[in-house]
Specification:
mainly alpha; globular
Length: 419
């Protein structure tokens, strides 16, 4: 089995349709308070910014940015890649029964619920107009990590590049957040295009090319615009970027191009881009690497692993089941409590036709609540159904509906089983 070549066999719908435009998470009541709350333990950093050893990597980074905001004169710059999704915190609080922590802005959290880290953020937001551009960039990214994306974008407004390194960095971070807000991706893409063609820091210019490619695709499958960003990157002579951060942004750029080639159904080129991304990512692991740089390298590595699993799932490329399992095990080792990682791992096993194992991973994702958890239960239900375990499938589809009552296919499945 370990030497069998993988043939994509993901006979699952990854997402269900909804009977409303947006899902509405049911609010659970009567749950334990934060210190004893099961979901709170996993999502603690996004709730009140306290740390938790069981939080996903993206949320553990919140502590680092908070520490940097405590010493703004130090001039820290964030190279973290992943930011929050709009309204994600609201989903967590609704499913955990912790709605007293709900707020539309960081300042809206009641004073008695604020940790010192949360109060520090509120203080920096109060002083936002008096902060330097570098600190503003950290504040915008930090607020977005907590999923207040629209608030962060409105706070900063549209920031255009000027050629000044700090202002260009601020423009880049604001554009990344703006691209997350529904209906604003075109504004963000215009900023990325300016940065790609005018930024004096070629690392930032290439990072903007990567962002431009990704958001051109995700914002409407605009592959023509995405190709324009590859043209910008070629003009940068990115091969000259051989310092540590140069390899980082080159890895990110090739990951983005791999996604573009996947959308274009060019699997051979897609895999070549993933290989190149991995090459540059591996160069980040220098002797003595530690601290924040190690976290940045690990974050980059985990995203590449996701790309490798998705590549195997969507386009046959000669991977063996042993290799695919290796990707899954490595991803889990890097980020064991990340819901998205658990979903991707489940997809990996489903690709290999190992539906019982896939169901186990999807179930673990489902147990973490939120919309991602609803998708996890839905995929688990399909796996159980394929295995002939209708009782477990019914349970999984029901658990999906408990997280998102607007889910159409899970509701139809349950209704059909009661006739």
């Amino acid at each position: 089995m370990s030497t069998t070549t993988v043939r994509p066999r993901l006979h699952l719908q990854s997402r269900y349709t909804r009977n409303q435009a947006y899902g509405r998470p049911p609010q659970v009541t009567g749950m334990p308070d934060l210190e004893q709350n099961r979901l709170g333990i996993f999502w603690r950093p996004i709730i009140d910014m306290a740390d938790s050893p069981f939080a996903p990597m993206r949320l553990r980074l919140i502590q680092h940015i908070s520490g940097w905001l405590a010493e703004p004169a130090a001039g820290h710059v964030s190279w973290f890649a992943r930011i929050g999704f709009p309204e994600f915190r609201r989903q967590v609080l609704a499913h955990a029964g912790l709605t007293r922590y709900a707020c539309r802005t960081p300042a809206g959290l009641p004073a008695e619920l604020r940790t010192p880290q949360w109060q520090l953020l509120v203080d920096r937001l109060d002083d936002y107009d008096r902060l330097d551009d570098g600190t503003r960039a950290l504040v915008v990214f930090h607020v977005a990590q907590l999923s207040f994306c629209e608030y962060a974008a409105d706070l900063a407004g549209v920031v255009r590049p000027t050629g000044d390194p700090a202002r260009d960095r601020l423009a880049y971070e604001v554009a990344r957040v703006t691209a997350r807000v529904p209906g604003r991706v075109r504004t963000a893409l215009s900023v990325f295009a300016e940065l790609a063609t005018t930024a004096a820091d070629r690392r930032l210019a290439l990072a903007a090319c990567a962002q431009g490619i990704s958001h051109a695709i995700r914002g409407g499958d605009d592959t023509e615009l995405a190709e324009t960003f590859t043209t910008y990157a070629t003009a940068l002579h990115a091969g000259d970027l051989d310092d540590w951060h140069g390899h980082l942004v080159r890895s990110r750029y090739h990951r983005a191009v791999a996604l573009l080639r996947l959308i274009q159904r060019r699997p051979v080129e897609m895999r070549a881009e993933v290989t190149t991304a991995l090459y540059h990512g591996n160069l980040l692991y220098t002797d003595g690497l530690g601290g924040t740089d190690r976290l940045v390298a690990d974050e980059n590595r985990r995203i590449i692993l996701e790309s490798q699993i998705k590549a195997a799932a969507r386009a046959a490329g000669g991977e063996t089941t042993a290799q695919l399992r290796g990707f899954c095990e490595a991803l889990y080792a890097l980020d064991p409590y990340c819901q998205n990682a658990l979903l991707v791992i489940g997809d990996g096993y489903a690709t290999a036709g190992q539906f019982a194992e896939a169901a186990g991973w999807y179930t673990r994702a489902g147990e973490l609540g939120t919309a991602g958890g609803a998708y996890g239960w839905y995929r688990a239900g399909q796996c159980f159904d394929l295995l002939g375990d209708v009782g477990s499938a019914v349970n999984a589809m029901g658990r999906c509906l408990e997280l998102d009552t607007t889910a159409v296919e899970p509701g139809a499945y349950l209704a059909a089983r009661q006739k």
